[in-house]
Amino acid sequence: MNGPVGLGARSRVLRPDCRTVLVVVPFLVAGIRLMDVLRLLESDHRVMVVFTVAPASNGAICHGPEEFVRARGGLLLPWHQAVQCEFDLVLAASETAVEQLHGRLMLLPHGANALPSRLRARSAGPGASPTHRLDRGTLIHRGRLLPAALPLTHEDELTLLRSSCPEAVGVSLVAGDVCFDRLMVSTPWRERYRRALGVRPDQRLVVVTSTWQPQSALGRHPDLLEWLLDQLPSGSHRVAAVLHPNIWGVTGTWQVRTWMADCLRQGLLLLPPEEGWRAALVAADVVVGDHGSVTSYGAALGRPVLLPSRPEASFLRPGSLAESVSREAFPLRFDLPPAPQIDQAVRRRPPGQRDRIASLVTSRPGRSARILRRAMYRLLELPEPTRPPVHAPVPPPTPLRPPDEPPRQEPA
Length: 412
What we know:
With 412 residues, the protein is an alpha/beta fold. Helix content is 34%, strand content 16%. The chain contains 18 helices and 15 strands. The strands form 3 sheets. The protein has a 7-stranded parallel beta sheet. Strand 6 and strand 7 form a beta hairpin. Helix 10 packs across helix 11 (253-259). It is globular.
């Protein structure tokens, strides 16, 4: 591709002295997280941003990342071209294939906390040893430390890093959580988000969130949404669904909307994976979820949490954010009507839950924009812009509509 990098690029670009930033999007979750970080580079004519989709270890490409980048107007470099160029900064929210790239790497988490809630990798099997994203196997490749900057969300992660990969301590920085900071600046927009969803002031908004794979809320309870929509009075409750982007990426948008067709016709508010889920969390009265990051973000906003099933003790990492949320969550019982259970959760939410969970999400609340921008410009070897870095509120949500009804056949 004749883009702004590679041989002959100086004769093609508007400004030949721009710093180049490569954004690595192996899957949707990483791309969604990095868009928040890229906002900190806006309006800087000294910086040129391009994107690439990294393949998995088996060479496969996930469904969705290319469409995600193109929908935002990003210049998408083929992977085989990206690995042959050198960049001033590489932004990644996953370690996938980053060892093949050339440039100063900033490696960010793509969920709540740099440490996953799961004790073991999803694909490793139950007999695998515990692992996490801050160990030497992740951060060092053939003796070379991969990241030039390693943002962490919490001081506790830095403590773990000192023992798990001391070589990376020198490039680490406790930067807080960019996603949570955007959630917090969005809270004054709560009523606007509710109006955008069509939720009346006298209605309760129940946000159902599910991560992916069989241990998730919808993996264990495929009929969860149907049950809530059937059981909750439609005049007093609305139900919204936030599904992990990997569900959309593995099965495709058509399949997800087809699975949800009856629910959509019953009034389900299905949020697209790219955006809308944060506005729905701000607008929510209660969250029904699992061990995924969205559930933890909801708890950190002060929303009471109900779990349709609790994960096994051997599944969650002891002391993890998800385990802390699980301990304070209410069980959702299917042998009882859901409305009284939701009412009880709202009335009896644990005192101080919001502050406790928020303190586990980030130890730099409200400061991620300033810390991350300073680190990026240090790697770019450019002076920071003089305007203060700020996070904008998330946009109002736009739920997906039901799939088109099949055409009715005319009688013969």
